[in-house]
Amino acid sequence: MNNQFSFIIITYNEEVHLPRLLQSISGLDAPVFILDSGSTDNTLQIAEQFGAVTLQHAFENHPKQWDFALKNFNIQTPWVICLDADQIVTDGLKERLKNFRDEDHPHLDGIYFNRKNFFKGSWIKHGGYSPFYLLKMIRYGAGYSDLNENMDHRFIVPGKTEIWKDGYILEENLKENNISFWINKHNRYSDLVAQEEVERMQQLRSQTLQPRFWGSPDERTAWLKQLWWKMPRYARPMIYFIYRMFFQLGILDGRTGIIFHFLQAFWFRLIVDIKIDEILSPPQKAPLNSVQKKSGPLRFVFSFIVLFVLFYYFNILFFSMTEPYGRYYIPWLANHLNYISALRLGLLKSSAQILNWLGFTSLSNEYDLLLVGHGVLKLVYSCLGLGVISFFAAFVIAYPKKWKSKIVFLISGIIGIELLNITRFVLLALFWDKQHARIIDHHTLFNIFIYLAIALTLYFWVKSDNALNDTDAAN
């Protein structure tokens, strides 16, 4: 029997996952302890077949379940490896564990494994998901479960840690191939996360780890969480989704990966923000604030219409003053203050760069995007999204909210609109058949999509009603 480390696994109806995990560690001859929370399938029978020691404990959340496991199993080894049932130990990690000796690591209290996460059979390689280090191997008696977290579980050790970059575990929840299971699961998780964040606003919870950007993987996560909590609700899910898609190259994960990033980065976190507001909302409707009393709906509608007309026709006028064939062409303006030309050039260059990252050969000039083997895409004025931006900017500026909220939301919204525009150009360059233009105008399709997205975003921004003030007051 292995006297260096033991395995602890927590389960609930894991008959589809548990056999593959136990088979992946069977050659290590290590003690296996399983904490179950009332499975009604064959989970316990499978555990018995593999010779695992089992206990039952009602599930409240992951941190408390792991805390119970560490305190109630009779562990006789200096180290424990804590795994979820939907994880698998790879052959490479297995070899490292076979050669592991406690006396070779007297200075360590914890070891990070490298996780490969799968969704619907696809490895999520980008969007911040690879590499992804999890503290899974801890010195028994020194490491413990962080009870200051409600859902985002982690172990903590007081001493030094080490990262096994080539020590891979695979994580794939086969139940999540049914999207309804994924949605129901994360709907439950969103309750826990929303409640936790409200408690942090009320200073009822604190972070156990010292937040440090240049620290361990978990210390960096703690630092990023502090940044997240200070961001405006309803805007932060979109900002995070855009960051994962374009800055962390989540777009390279393909169709399945993009669906995953949308659900995990945007949908889940938007639901959390909505539930935070539901928790914070008083039982009776709050009176209108002083700004809203002075404004009124008629003033807002009038301001919105006037601003929209001004923005919309100013852009058209400016376009005619900066294009050589324009009616009111002014060379100095075209050469020194031409924001329309700069926007078009930025969209073309960004689209070409993304296509090149995807492995295609793409070139661009001042007006055209060329994708070798596919053809040329020409960006005319209607492609730039200035009409959509005019609508969005007019609404945000006219709406009676504090300017801090307006500025943050306006900037993030415009960036989001143009990043969606870049996504459109990339997809058009790759897939659009010009023959379809006789039946369907892609401008119309994009406008329908973008106005629906803006309407949804504006709805939640209006509903949030001083989301920035709530967050600032709580910190």
Notes on the structure:
The chain crosses the membrane at residues 297-319, 379-401, 407-432, 444-462. It holds the Pfam family Glycos_transf_2. One of its GO terms (molecular function) is peptidase activity. Mean pLDDT is 88; it is low at 290-295, 436-440 and 466-475. It contains 15 helices and 14 strands. It is elongated. It has 475 residues and is of the alpha/beta class. 29% of the residues are buried. It has 3 domains: 5-177, Spore Coat Polysaccharide Biosynthesis Protein SpsA, Chain A (Alpha-Beta Complex); 180-280, no CATH class; 290-474, no CATH class. The two termini are 51 Å apart. Strands 1, 2, 3, 4, 5, 6, 7, 8 and 11 form a 9-stranded mixed β-sheet that branches. A 3-stranded antiparallel β-sheet has the order 12-13-14, with helices on one face.
List the helices and strands and how they pair.
Elements: E1 5-11, H1 18-24, E2 32-36, H2 43-49, E3 53-56, H3 62-72, E4 79-84, E5 87-89, H4 91-98, E6 108-119, E7 122-123, E8 133-139, E9 144-145, E10 155-156, E11 160-172, H5 179-201, H6 217-230, H7 236-247, H8 254-280, H9 290-322, H10 331-336, H11 339-357, E12 362-364, E13 368-371, E14 375-378, H12 386-398, H13 403-431, H14 442-464, H15 467-474
Parallel strand pairs: 1-2, 1-4, 2-3, 6-11
Antiparallel strand pairs: 4-8, 5-11, 6-7, 6-8, 9-10, 12-13, 13-14
Helix pairs in contact: 5-8, 7-8, 7-13, 9-12, 11-13, 12-13, 13-14
